[in-house]
Every structure is written in C-alpha cells, then in structure tokens.
Target: tRNA-splicing ligase RtcB
Amino acid sequence: MTTKTIEIGEFTLKRVQEYVWEMPQEGDMRVPARVLASEELLSEIKEDKTLTQLHNTTQLPGIQEYALCMPDGHQGYGFPVGGVAGIDAEDGCISPGAVGYDINCGVRMVKTNLRYEDIQGTEEDLVNALFANVPTGLGGGGVVNNAPVEEILERGVEWAVEEGYGVETDLAHCEDEGFRAEADATAVSQKAKDRGRNQAGSLGSGNHFLEVQRVTDIYDDNVAAEFGLSKDQIVVLIHCGSRGLGHQVCTDYLRDIEQTHEGLLNQLPDKELAAAPAGSRLAEEYYRAMCGAINFAWTNRQLITHQTRQVFERVFDRSWQEMEMELLYDVSHNIAKKELHTIDGEQKELFVHRKGATRAFPAGRPELPPAYRDVGQPVIIPGSMGAGSYILRGGEQSLDETFGSTAHGAGRLMSRTQAKSEYWGEDVMDDLREQNQIYVKAESGATVAEEAPGVYKDIDDVVTVSDTLGIGDKVARTYPVCNIKG
Model:
C-alpha cells in the first residue's frame, strides 16, 4: 500500500492502512480522528459536515485513542452518524447528542425454518397482514395501549416475556438480555413517559421498517451454522427504537445540560455536543434515563416480534414454534454504555458512545450470551429496501481498532428533502415489485421516496471495509421479500 494524503476542505487525511484515514491531532483536538472508508465512500462522506463533526468530537473531555467514523458515516446532530467515541467514565463526560434522539434505535433478526419457495405466492397477503397488525407511522398507537411505562423502563424485555409477549430464549439472544439494570424510571420525565405510553410495540416512521428477507449468500459455513442460518431461509428484520419516549429523554437532558454545564459547553466547538462531566448529577441521571429508554426500545422490538409471530401463524396456518421463529440477535446502534477497554496497556472504564454504529464484540467477551461467546457476536447491518442486508460476526480486530464497533447500515447519501424531490414513492414501490419482486407497503408514498434505494450508499462497499479490517466478518447476506414502513 502506498502512502496517500487527501485534502478535503480544511482537513488533511492520511491513509495509515488500507481503508483507514487519519486526521492528525492538532490545535484543540485531544486525539486524532479516523475515518474507515474506501476512497469511493470517502468521496461521499466529504459531501456534508461529517468531517467537521468528527473533528469537533475530538475535543470532548476524556476522549481516548481516536474519534472514529464508520464507513457508513454521514452528518448527524453534532456527532456524526456512524461515529464512535470511547470517553473516560471517571474523568471524561457523557453527551446525549453523541447517542442521538432515538436512543437504542437498533435491529433484531428473527429466524424461521421456512424456505423462499414456501412463501412465494403469499407475499402480498403477508405484507398486507404485517402492515395491518404492526403499528406504523408518526405519533401514537402501539401493540399495548396505556402500557405500564415505568415497569417497562426498569425491567425491559423481561416484562414482555412475563406478560406473554415472548419466551425465555428471546432474553438469551438479546444484547444484555434485553435489560439494563442501571435504568431508573424516576430519571425519565413525565412528558417522556406519556409519549411512550401508547407507542409500546410500534415501528414509527422515517427509516424504520420490518422486512421479510431470504438468505441469498453464506460466506462462512461454520459461523452461519452456529447462528442457525442457511441459504434460501426466510428471516425477519425489525428496525426501530425508543419512539417519542427516547426523543423526549434526549431533548430533556440536552436542555438541562446546556443550562447547568454552560462552562463546558462554551469550551466545545458545537453546542450540539453538549456534555455532562462524568460523576456530575446530570451525567448520572442521564445515564439512568438513557438505560430506561434502552429497555423501552428492546421491549418495543419484542412486542413487534410477538405481532410478527402471530401474523405468520395466520398466514401460514401453523404455530410460530413449528416455524421455529427464534430470535437470532437484537443489537443497538444508538447508545452509550460503560465498558472496559484496554488503553495504553491498562483496563479502563469508558462511556463508549455509538451513534449509528453497532457493537461488534469478538468471541470471548463476557458481555456476549453463552450461545455466542465462543463464536462472536452476531452483527446485523441492514441495507436499503432494494438491496441486501448482512449478518456479520464481531471481528478479532474490533477491540483494538474501534472499541468493538462496526457500521450500522448503508448510510444516507442524500437528505430526505432531496430524496422527495428526486423520487416518487408510488413509482419506487412499483419498480421494486415489478423488477425485484419486493413488496412494499407504507403509510405514505413520501416515506418510500425518502427511503428509496438510491438514497443510500452501497451496502457492499460498507461491509467490505468492515470485513477487510477484521472489525466485523461477513457471515451471510439477505435480500428483501416484503417490507412495511411508517
């Protein structure tokens, strides 16, 4: 590999290894910044404010090693989407903007023993039944009306299982077993609770979706077997988060932190990075409230899983147990968690902020469920509704290179406003059905236009970077069959 330097606006990026571009530490930067990308992806990343936001992130107190941007990175709120930052949990800070408004937006994959041939001819019935039974769209409406939000905030998926919306094996195949013990419902405002009360078990809108997929490619036979994946298998991918509750938690704490820690805010280059010093009252309260929103989001995806199982039972006239509709994994990609990482040869507790980035722990990490501790964590990376998605496993290099993280999706190429000016939702749906045999049903054509395949980067390029760097290894690829959106 030849050394190469690229000038992008005010920034100089030097290639330090294949697919790794470093912005050297200078001025007010506390650490260097790194972008993980091919030259093609880098040319897309430079089109917005991603690099400026990444540069700003390096100025957060207590940040360790590097500020990182994954290959699907794009401009976000203060902190880039696709951003990862490990920040000292004793002497650093925690930043709501570096987690995002949709706390624990994430993905889960449900396996089945159905083959693609088993569902051909039923796609339209299936997509209509899913759309009728899984609440979608902006605003209220969930599987559980007037849900006991306080209990969900503090117990997570365990509450759903106890109420008959899941089984014990669902807990065993969810990140942290679907429960953050630090959650505290009293740290969540009444307004946030009220927003979530009738949204438990709903997709919401925007880029959230439920997609029935078929497995088209297996890249690692042994790991795929451990994950229970095989070619032509039907799986279901669910992508959503903490709905209005999580949004309100972020809003509440951003406002309080801006007012209470104005001195720290004035030291930062962007007020959207507002952060509470580690150990402060607001840092502790935000962490407990965020953990509650994390529990709510996991429960939200569990309730949607329950509805999906019931729909499959009706459409295919057999029990979901007969169809072996078991959870492969559920993993967050908007989160800040206390984790132990090796820094300069010593174990240190960090707030690892992942915003539009997926945890990708290799085999051996104690946080992994027993089912995957010897093989590595499943990593689920959705593509656009006209492209494939990928299942990876946590790579051996992830802890050294990215605080155990990789990409979370394809990453946007254009804004929602631009997408709506370039695409017509009904045309997109017609083309997907006629040319790709993909059935899409949505609350509005505008939503489909915002999420048209051309709006996103090439998922294959994103995953190639991850696989080549050894931070997330390719296991399998899937392709859409039908999709519902808000």
The longest strand covers residues 472-485. The chain has a mean pLDDT of 95.
